């Protein structure tokens, strides 16, 4: 049972750099007057706000958590928006949060400092007639119990909080959820529990499968960011889940990991999902969740930047308000006319297109097109090569990768899901960690990239040279440990392979095996003369996703052989939009 597989380690008190001005336990109700400024660098409040601090809420198993509630002054009943995360409800003014804003080039005056990290700002939402509920979840800061990480337990806990909020005398009975990253993931789990008073959700980029997205992407134990998440959050008085120990003890899909996948078939609430192509932690999970959730009313917006600047952009906040006004206040504001999908197309040269309307993703008129690898000429061709040819590299050598290039003679738009279908062989080893990347080149062959945030300083160049992939987009990537190549027939499609990760099939000498590797969804324009480079390597081509994360060392040795043409027609499948 998954409960028996769960591991815990002692938690620790919140450190000074994670402590904000409102962190200290101080229950009571007070009014913050219009113009109030929690500190000089933050936005002043536009209206009077009632602040109920450290309100106790008892969950169904008797565990008590503490919640901060911000709500408009007055007798009118208002809907409430929940921000569920483990980072500490008073961290908005902490050095760590202010540092993150600086990292991505956001001014701290974009918010009031009353918000949780990655969460809605009470200053804005209270002025629009909403309350904001910021809980310290199970096991965090002063709340009781042991904390868990992205788990169905969180869905049950948030269900209890939502139903408690709906009964408060100031609440209209309508509850919504919003937020990025952890706050997005918690919405999948909560909505799947179907709390009666949850009226709408807004997951803004977040994983939807802890095994596949966080700790064992492609079957590889790349836990650098998981270590930052576990060791740099879940501060409290009791215990926190040891996701690192679990990943080491259970490297295959078990009930533990299955319970960290939301039950998407039970998510029926209206959902406005926000995604990007460039977040190597969140992209795959956000698109997967959007595809699978059962809501009949669901919208997808794919932006062209990084989630924090996108989340606090005033135009996007207003867009979200229209969604919540419609579903939490019953406003007849035309939201239902919003296109089901609004996607972006990147060109890496300042000509991005955003908010391209469509009825689906991929949009209509997209054809999954095979570009065959030719190991002799190292080109990609839409004609299947007849002769057998192999491209190979020594994993400890230089070069330690193999590339294939094609040039486009006319405007070419790719939007949808790429995948790699490869025939591979390991010489001198019984397994392979494979990394693949679709890279855009200009007409001279120079790789093109794009910063996702406003900060393009020398420091950000350094941080993203061999890592920090969420801050600089270098192309669509994928990875797979070849011994875990077995496909999940129920989840796989012709465009999106999904692996079961429930069995190990080692390679034998001279064995050539067929593998499919899913790459992150793409929205990319190639102008005439520009080129596409497809790279296969035995090492991570992007480095760690976050600055400071431990770099993954692949379990590779010997020689990697990529077979092409003839009986082994390896190809890259790309979603090409009809011209």
UniProtKB/TrEMBL annotation:
Gene3D superfamilies: 1.10.3020.20, alpha/beta hydrolase, Galactose-binding domain-like. GO terms for molecular function: dipeptidyl-peptidase activity. Residues 321-573 form the Xaa-Pro dipeptidyl-peptidase C-terminal domain. Coiled coil: none annotated. Keywords: Hydrolase. It comes from the Bacteria. It holds the Pfam family PepX_C. PANTHER family: COCE_NOND FAMILY, PUTATIVE (AFU_ORTHOLOGUE AFUA_7G00600)-RELATED, PEPTIDASE S9 PROLYL OLIGOPEPTIDASE. This is Hydrolase.
């Amino acid at each position: 049972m998954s409960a028996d597989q769960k591991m815990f380690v002692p938690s620790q008190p919140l450190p000074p750099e994670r402590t904000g001005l409102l962190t200290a336990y101080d229950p009571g109700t007070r009014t913050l007057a219009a113009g109030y400024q929690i500190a000089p660098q933050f936005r002043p409040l536009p209206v009077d706000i009632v602040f109920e601090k450290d309100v106790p809420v008892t969950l169904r198993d008797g565990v008590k958590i503490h919640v901060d509630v911000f709500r408009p002054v007055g007798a009118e009943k208002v809907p409430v928006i929940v921000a569920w995360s483990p980072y500490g409800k008073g961290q908005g003014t902490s050095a760590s949060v202010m540092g993150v804003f600086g990292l991505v080039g956001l001014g701290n005056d974009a918010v009031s400092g009353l918000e949780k990290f990655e969460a809605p700002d009470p200053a804005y939402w209270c002025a629009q007639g909403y309350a904001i509920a910021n809980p310290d979840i199970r096991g965090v800061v002063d709340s009781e119990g042991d904390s868990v990480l992205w788990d169905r337990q969180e869905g049950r806990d948030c269900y209890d909080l939502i139903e408690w909020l709906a009964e408060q005398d100031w609440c209209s009975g309508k509850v919504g959820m919003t937020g990025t990253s952890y706050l997005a993931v918690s919405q999948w789990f909560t909505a799947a529990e179907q709390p009666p008073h949850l009226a709408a959700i807004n997951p803004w980029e977040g994983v939807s499968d802890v095994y596949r997205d966080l700790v064992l992407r492609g079957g590889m134990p790349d836990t650098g960011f998981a270590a930052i998440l576990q060791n740099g959050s879940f501060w409290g008085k009791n215990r926190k889940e040891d996701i690192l120990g679990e990943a080491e003890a259970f490297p295959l899909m078990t009930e533990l990991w299955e319970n960290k996948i939301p039950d998407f078939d039970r998510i029926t609430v209206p959902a406005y999902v926000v995604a990007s192509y460039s977040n190597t932690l969140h992209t795959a999970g956000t698109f997967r969740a959007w595809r699978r959730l059962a809501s009949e009313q669901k919208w997808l917006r794919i932006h062209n930047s990084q989630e924090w600047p996108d989340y606090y952009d005033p135009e996007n906040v207003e867009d979200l308000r229209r969604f919540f006004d419609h579903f939490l206040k019953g406003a007849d504001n035309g939201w239902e006319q919003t296109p089901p999908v609004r996607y972006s197309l990147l060109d890496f040269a300042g000509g991005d297109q955003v908010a391209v309307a469509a009825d689906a993703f991929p949009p209509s008129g997209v054809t999954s097109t095979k570009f065959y690898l030719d190991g002799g000429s190292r080109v990609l061709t839409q004609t299947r090569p007849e002769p057998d040819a192999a491209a190979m590299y020594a994993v400890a050598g230089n070069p330690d990768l193999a590339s294939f290039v094609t040039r486009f003679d006319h405007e070419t738009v790719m939007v949808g899901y790429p995948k790699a279908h490869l025939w591979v062989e390991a010489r001198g080893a019984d397994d392979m960690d494979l990394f693949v990347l679709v890279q855009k080149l200009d007409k001279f062959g120079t790789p093109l990239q794009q910063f996702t945030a406003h900060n393009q300083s020398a420091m950000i160049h350094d941080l993203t040279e061999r890592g920090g992939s969420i801050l600089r987009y270098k192309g669509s990537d994928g990875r797979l440990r070849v011994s875990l190549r077995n496909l999940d027939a129920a989840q796989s499609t012709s465009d999106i392979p999904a692996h079961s990760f429930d069995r190990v099939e080692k390679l034998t000498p001279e064995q050539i095996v067929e593998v499919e590797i899913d790459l992150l969804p793409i929205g990319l324009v190639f102008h005439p003369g520009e080129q596409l480079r497809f790279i296969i390597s035995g090492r991570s081509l992007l480095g760690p996703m976050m600055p400071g994360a431990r770099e993954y060392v692949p379990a590779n040795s010997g020689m990697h052989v990529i077979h092409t043409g003839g009986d082994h027609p390896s190809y890259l499948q790309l979603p090409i939009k009809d011209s």
